[in-house]
Structure formats: C-alpha cells, structure tokens
Amino acid sequence: MKTILAAVILVAGQSVINYAAAKENAVVVGFQRDLDEQLLRYLKNGQAKALVGHFNSSVNLIIEKEEGHYSKFQSELILDDFFRHKKVEDVKVVQSVAANNGGARYVVYQLKTSQKTYRVFLRMIRVDDEFFISEVRIE
After folding, report:
1. Do 120 and 48 contact (CB within 8 A), yes or no?
2. Where does the signal peptide begin and end (predicted)?
C-alpha cells in the first residue's frame, strides 16, 4: 500500500512539473514570436535605431560582403545608411529556429527593396531571460 501511495505521489508530482515546464515553454515561444514580429516591423520600416535597441553591446555586422565587429552606435549608423539607400518594400519571416539548449535563436527574413531582394539573418543570444542580437547578415 505504501508503495502504491508513493507511486501516485511521484506521478502527480511529475505531472505538476511537466505542466509548469510546458506553460513556461509556451510563454517563451509566444515571446519569441512577438520579438520576431517586432523585428520584422523595424526592418520593414527601416528603423535602425529601434532594431539596434535589441543588439548585444557589440555585434558582427555583414552587409553585402562588408564585414566587421561594431558597437551599437556604429551599427546604427551603418544600418541607417543601408536603409536610407535601399527603400524597403516588403519583409517576411522565412525561418525562425531556437537552439536546443535555448541559449540562441536564429531568424531569417526576406527583405525586398526596389533594386534587390536580400536575405537577412539574425543570430540572437540569450542573456539571463532576454535575447539580444549578436550577428546581422544582409546578403
């Protein structure tokens, strides 16, 4: 009888833990989707300053084969110049993937301008409970 009671308590406890983990995962997935949509709006509207607000303290920035490691301020100037010369017509999410350990995320957008269509790759790293962009590629 004690064995059955212990098994019931163990199963019930595990169910509570699984429910809590599933609920937390759903919140994280919802947050990630919201962040993806927010970043999409910034790209679509050419809002370099708002986009840079989600950057890590420094970022790898690759734009049309020009590559470097820049501060947030430098990145904002470079992206602002890109958006000023390339009028964005449309942006859509192509792919959004979270790493298995939850420490990184990758989002790929298709950014269409009047002259060319680009693939925009964002790599985000998790710091505490927030994601910050650590790499931007516009190719």
Report:
1. no
2. 1-20
Structural domain that includes position 130: 2-138
CA distance 50 to 127: 19
Residue indicated by tokens 């590559």: 67
Alpha-carbon distance of 78 to 73, in angstroms, equals 9
The encoded tokens of residue 55 equal 């950057």
Q: Of 85, 52, 84, which Cα lies nearest the Cα of 71?
A: 52
Which helix or strand (DSSP H or E) is residue 104 part of? strand 104-113
Whether the Cβ atoms of residue 89 and residue 110 lie closer than 8 Å to each other = no
For 1-16, give one letter per residue: b (16+ CB within 10 A) or e. eeeeeeeeeeeeeeee
User: For residues 135 and 33, what is the distance between their CA atoms, to the nearest angstrom?
Assistant: 19
Q: How far apart are CA 60 and CA 39, in angstroms?
A: 17
Interatomic CA distance for residues 90 and 105, integer angstroms: 23
**pLDDT the model gives residue 21:** 46
CATH number at 16 reads 3.10.450.50
Domains: count for the chain: 1
pLDDT digits (tens, 9 = 90+) for 43-62: 999 999 999 999 999 999 99
